Each structure stands twice: as C-alpha cells, then as structure tokens.
Amino acid sequence: MNTMKYHKISNYYINLDERGDFYADVRTKSGKTVFEIKGFDIFEDGFMRNKKDMKGLEEHLVSLKIMNKIDVLQYIC
Questions:
Q1: Mean pLDDT of all residues belonging to the chain
Q2: DSSP 33
C-alpha cells in the first residue's frame, strides 16, 4: 500500500504593482486562479509582510484550506 503524500505546485504572480495599485494571484499548475490579491489589505492585515513574503502567503492559503502544508508555492517573476 502506497502511503506517500503528493504535493501540488501553485504559482504566485504579481500582475500589477505601480502607483499605489497592486494585483496578484495564485494559480494552479494548469493556470486556474485559486486566490486573488487586490490592493494592500493582505499586507495591512498582517498576512504578508511584503509582496514577496511567500511564507506568509503560504500560511494564509493553508489557513483558508486553499493549500495543504505539503504543497509548494512558487513566485513567478
């Protein structure tokens, strides 16, 4: 019996970051958007320290049950 757990890979994209506007999203490997960040609330509420705080974003997505602890989140420039 195979008890090995597999992780999913998701990608974090910053789509807009200029002049006070911010928009980013997290997509599955197939390109489906599973989480969007519009504006700065996620930073002001303390879930992320800055726009590249992957650990904070991963913890937030796990708490929302969008990701599992073993999943991987990659920042795509």
A1: 92
A2: E
47, 58 Cβ separation under 8 angstroms: no
Q: Determine the average pLDDT of the residues in 29-54.
A: 95
Angle at 57 between CA 52 and CA 61, to 5 degrees: 155
Residue 75 pairs with which residues in a beta bridge?
Answer: 12
Identify the three-state secondary structure at position 4: coil
Extents of the domains making up the chain: 9-76
| Three-class secondary structure of residue 25 per DSSP | strand
Q: Which residues pair with 28 in a beta bridge?
A: 10
pLDDT-based confidence at 7, cuts 50/70/90?
confident
